[in-house]
Design a protein that fits this description.
By secondary structure, the protein is of the alpha/beta class.
Length: 349
Amino acid sequence: MQNGQVNHNEKGVFLTHEDYSKLVDLENVNREQNIEITYLKQELAQLKRMIFGSKSERFIQGDPGQLSLDLGIEQQEAPEAETEELTYTRKKSKAEKKESPVRLPLPSHLHREEHIIEPNEDITGAKKIGEVITEILEYTPGKFYVEKFIRLKYALPEDKGIVIGELPSFPIPKGNAGSGLLSHITISKFVDHLPFFRQVKQFKRANITIAESTISGWFSATCRLLEPLYEKLIEKTEQSSYLMADETPIPVLTKDKPGATHKGYHWVYYSPLEKLVCFNYRKGRGREGPEKFLQSFQGALQTDGYTAYNQFKNRQGITLLACMAHARRKFEQALDNDPERAEYVMKKI
């Protein structure tokens, strides 16, 4: 330093202390602005991707020897669909006005498989006086048919009374739906995602008329029959040593909100080792859901960063694991901003 001047570099350029301080301040501002510009660019790219881009997080390492085509195709917004509200009124049918349900006879064109049921009692010397017929609508893949049970009725000699063949047990007591049909309805709803009103149309194409309310009643009875299996599934899931857990919202129709849906949640627990998946429905997303379901669980629990799972961090017997998919997502989103380091992590994962 000579005469209040500072030698700033080796090229003979001299700056005062005041000029040097200003230069340092400008460099700091420039550095901060570059960081902010980089952040805003990344944020803008993410926003464009959310609106116009693909939702896929697939990563394929680039091949420098492979040519690429830039067709310059721009995404266009889809036009909003026009909607209109329709209302109508109708008179209730006589069947709907009655309090007791009316069972319609099963169509006569359907194939019948008859089962003759004799009484368990000794009918030696008895005289047949009639029969009682019970018909159950059944289904095998691609075919509706009727199971026809003919229970023979006898009058015992010496006025000892009347005996009749005993019906086998049915899934729904006093109902006319067989186990195959009930299985078909349930699988169509949950596996093929066919609501009941569409299944009603399927039945009509086979000249079978079944009310949607009837199918709904059959379905509810089937669910009650499956409750013991569900309880066993929960028990086996809790006995696993490694579980993955996540929750997903689902719109639910309830009597509390007529004409609207309630936002419920399916808490899903997956055991990769046993290949078991257990859905546990809850009305909300609070911590009491996993707390109750996993009260006897011991092992590794892998989840995302949702705070409801933090309660397991210090619980003895449970090791809380992070979700690699969520960690990977951040690096996948950074591919446009910092491809060198992001690609490195993506390759490792």
